[in-house]
Amino acid sequence: MNNIVLIGFMGTGKTTIGKGLAHKLSYDFLDTDEEIERQEGISISNIFDKYGEEYFRLLEQKTVKQASSLKNTVISTGGGVVLNPQNINYLKSSGLLVCLEANIDTIYKNALKSDNRPLLCGHQDLKGRITAMLKNRKGLYDCADIKVNVDEKYIHDIIEEIIITIKERKIL
Fold first, then answer.
1. d(Cα 117, Cα 15) in Å, to the nearest integer?
2. Which residues contact 170 (CB under 8 A, 6 or more apart)?
3. What's the pLDDT tens digit per position in 132-164?
4. Are 171 and 145 within 8 A, CB to CB?
5. Where are the alpha helices (DSSP H) in the chain?
């Protein structure tokens, strides 16, 4: 068990923090959404548009299973990875789960920076949609070994907090 797996709602900074954490620890880095895009040759948004969410979730499970066989890797997952309990089983078997948490305002602000969030596309009330999705996923992120709030923190401070927490708890 030597991977560090970042879970959390979209817009909490999993990819950015994951890359920095991997660099700091001299680990490899894998973003499951980026890996799906690489393997499929199209964007996540296009996968949702062409084939639907159910098909995407099958690709996600396959990618998570592959990622769980890696060693010394920081794995950044999509926000909905927790919707499938099998994904959590795979990820927990290979590493430590770190949940990045944020309030609605942080998520909303970060969601506006990206056009590659298919579950938010086309919604007039973006904050309402985020709130509803968070409510539906309530408790699913509780599978994490560590939770770190990212609100109004610098990326390097979040990375340090994760590393310090891991060392203090002697988890890895």
1. 14
2. none
3. 888 988 899 999 999 999 999 999 999 999 999
4. yes
5. 14-25, 32-40, 44-51, 53-67, 85-94, 104-112, 126-136, 155-169
Beta bridge partners of 148: 100
Strand-pairing partners, residue 95, are 3
How far, in Å, CA of 43 to CA of 84, rounded?
Answer: 21
pTM: 0.91
Cβ-contact 60, 114 below 8 angstroms: no
Q: Count of residues for the chain?
A: 172
- The model's pLDDT over 94-128, given as tens digits with 9 standing for 90+, comes to 999 999 999 999 988 877 666 555 555 555 677 88
**Residue 141, token pair as written in the block:** 């992120």
Q: Is 123 helix (H, G, I), strand (E, B) or coil?
A: coil
* Contact criterion met (CB below 8 Å) for 6 and 75: yes
In Å, what is the CA distance from 71 to each residue of 96, 137, 151? 12, 28, 30
**Which burial class, exposed, middle or buried, applies to 9 when counting CB atoms under 10 A from its CB (0-12, 13-18, 19+)?**
buried
